[in-house]
Write a structure and sequence with these properties.
The protein is α+β, with helices and mostly antiparallel strands and 232 residues long. It folds into two domains: 108 residues, Pseudouridine synthase I, catalytic domain, N-terminal subdomain (Alpha-Beta Plaits, 2-Layer Sandwich), CATH 3.30.70; 115 residues, Alpha-Beta Plaits (2-Layer Sandwich), CATH 3.30.70.3190. The chain is 22% helix and 38% strand. The two termini are 17 Å apart. Pfam families: DUF2344 (PF10105).
């Protein structure tokens, strides 16, 4: 048996694939590439494929991660070549590394994401006003958001999950860069941060998001940010 960790992009039309559809794309690509994918046992066997934090439909990414288990060993370079040949446009395999069979799952280690959000403001706003709004937001100890849950609407403070937030404004186009908590333990959504920033402007302008791009996923250990390819 063999376990591999894969770093890949999700761009162009691939951004419209749901998490389940993405799983099926990779499973189909491995079948077509004659890659010896391992399956669970039982009446309904599933491929032994697991991903990092799911990406919402419509968001692009430069670095997504998945682990796959094979029932027999093949050279990593051969695996990468066979897989890439069968993948659709927008999904590019950047790296493949062999990891221990008992390596910790991606969802258990990835806890930080970096996003770039681009959009427009509906009114003229100075760059200084925009930067001051970011500083004011970061100075807060409490940034509440409301989320729908099975038990109703839940209020959550996302401030501790915002590790870094910067931005720029040119004419009416804004660009916000953020490093936030993600994963099973905690999760800050980029659109929530932009909404909180809009509220900080106190009616001076409304922010409309045009695109969200996930630049990276990390394993945050204190002040250190490690690639999931380095942590097994």
């Amino acid at each position: 048996m063999q376990r591999l960790r894969i770093e890949f992009t999700k761009e162009k039309l691939a951004k419209f694939l749901s998490h389940l559809e993405l799983l099926k794309v990779f499973e189909r690509a491995m079948r077509r590439g004659a890659i010896p994918l391992s399956f669970t046992r039982g009446f309904h066997p599933h491929p032994r494929i697991s991903f990092g934090p799911a990406l919402a439909v419509g968001i692009t990414s430069s670095r997504e991660y998945m682990d796959v288990e094979l029932k027999r060993r093949i050279p990593v370079s051969q695996f990468k070549e066979k897989l890439q040949q069968q993948l659709p446009q927008g999904i590019v395999v950047r790296k493949v590394e062999e990891i221990p069979l008992k390596a910790t799952a991606l969802m258990a280690v990835i806890n930080c994401a970096v996003y770039q959000v681009r959009g427009e403001v509906d009114k003229l706003l100075t760059e200084k006003e925009f930067e001051e709004a970011i500083k004011s937001l970061l100075a807060r100890n409490y940034i509440p958001v409301e989320r729908e849950t099975k038990k109703g609407v839940k209020r959550k403070n996302i401030r501790e999950g915002i590790y870094c937030l910067t931005g720029s404004l040119v004419n009416r186009c804004f660009n916000v860069h953020m490093k936030v908590a993600t994963g099973s333990g905690d999760n800050v959504r980029p659109e929530e941060v932009v909404h909180a920033l809009a509220q900080e402007l106190e009616g001076k302008a409304q922010l409309s998001v045009l695109s969200i791009h996930r630049e990276a996923l990390y394993v945050k250990e204190g002040d250190n940010y490690l690639s999931p390819m380095e942590v097994v």
